[in-house]
Amino acid sequence: MSTEVKDSSSAAPAAVDPRLLVRESGVKGYIEDFQRRLKGGDLGALPVAIGLVIIWVTFYSLNENFLSPQNLSNLALQIAATGTISVGIVLVLLLGEIDLAVGSVSGLTGAVLAVLNVNQGMSAGVAILAALVAGAIVGAIHGFFFARVGVPSFIVTLAGLIGWQGLQLYVLGKEGTINLPYEGGVAMLTHTFFPHAVGFAIGAVIVAVYLLLDMAASRRRAKAGLPSRPISESVIRALLIGVAIFVAVYVLNQAEGLPLALVLFIGFVAAFDWILRRTRYGRMIFAVGGNAEAASRAGINVRLVRISVYVLSSTMGAAGGVMAASRLFAVNQSSGGNNELLNAIAAAVIGGTSLFGGRGSTYSALLGMLVIGSISNGMYLVQLDSSVQFMITGAVLLAAVVIDSVSRRGRQSSGRA
């Protein structure tokens, strides 16, 4: 009797978690997967994509210059610095924590960059590297007090927001403003535009790299005995991405060309997305954000992961500060202030990263900044008061959090939280 039971159990097909399945059934498979995600409360980037289309159509109807190549080029430059900071915010939000100090960190590191490059005569490359290292050190301090000492992240980074701003004023000195050379290496970061042919070549390289990585991932899944998408599907996906990239490059070429700042920003987004989805370290970040206690019992060094994420967050804050200084040709007492921190956090949340931790993507920074930047840019074109901009941005942020909360309840009810 035991043999029969054994045989029947061995003959039973193994249940496969649908979340592990790759959409293998063509268009029908994608539709079924999309419906399953909607029923489970996983809306993904759908709300922000719809919102972005509505925003663009609205402002285009009010002012046709909104979608002109020159204005879209300006929009790309406007979102690059704060968007880079937002990439680091996404990593912290995935832990279910917050970093209120990145704005001050961007201002402080911008001041370090300006002092070293202008006052001390260091080369642009060395000064930029020093600024990034300074940001990493600041992040390590935040992570130490949060992960090792046990101070809540809100308090640690709130203290950092105040303290690093004071250090920024000290570094800048009595004058409070340091101007960067217009033709210097720092200025080139946000004032360099690739020639038309180079822009298309960069797009082709991006598509080729995406296709190779996607095919490599499919081979790894096949070797592990998991369903993998066919090569034809990978090629079709790469072609669709290629069309979108080449259209964007073509439009930007009608202005001044593909901006280096945009390439850097999207490069950060893509690189960290690959780290989160394709590496063990990325899976550890999601695990800690989903359930820190369970992650610890699984053998993950939770403290180390938390410290490293804050290091990366502040480093990205420093990168954003460098780009902001490059765009303005100067660093002053208000650098890193104003609404930079709020916009960076809002972009991550509006783009779809959950405030509850464990769910999101660095592409949230790109989508969210497109929404915020489009609102700001469009209102400037139609000459609406800045007060209206703040109210609309706040409403969009609230809507994003409401959608996140409702989606979370949907995932909990379906057992996918």
Automatic annotation (TrEMBL):
Membrane-crossing segments per the record: 43-63, 75-95, 100-118, 124-147, 154-173, 193-213, 234-252, 258-276, 307-329, 341-358, 365-382, 388-406
Entry annotated with the keyword Cell membrane: yes
Subcellular location, record wording: Cell membrane
First-listed, main subcellular location of the protein, grouped into a coarse class: membrane
Key word Transmembrane present: yes
UniProt membrane topology term: Multi-pass membrane protein
CDD domains documented for this protein: TM_PBP1_transp_AraH_like (cd06579)
Top-level division of the source organism's lineage: Bacteria
Annotated keywords: Cell inner membrane, Cell membrane, Membrane, Sugar transport, Transmembrane, Transmembrane helix, Transport
Role: Part of the binding-protein-dependent transport system for D-xylose. Probably responsible for the translocation of the substrate across the membrane.
Protein name: Xylose transport system permease protein XylH
Organism of provenance: Pendulispora rubella
Taxonomy of the source species: Bacteria, Pseudomonadati, Myxococcota, Myxococcia, Myxococcales
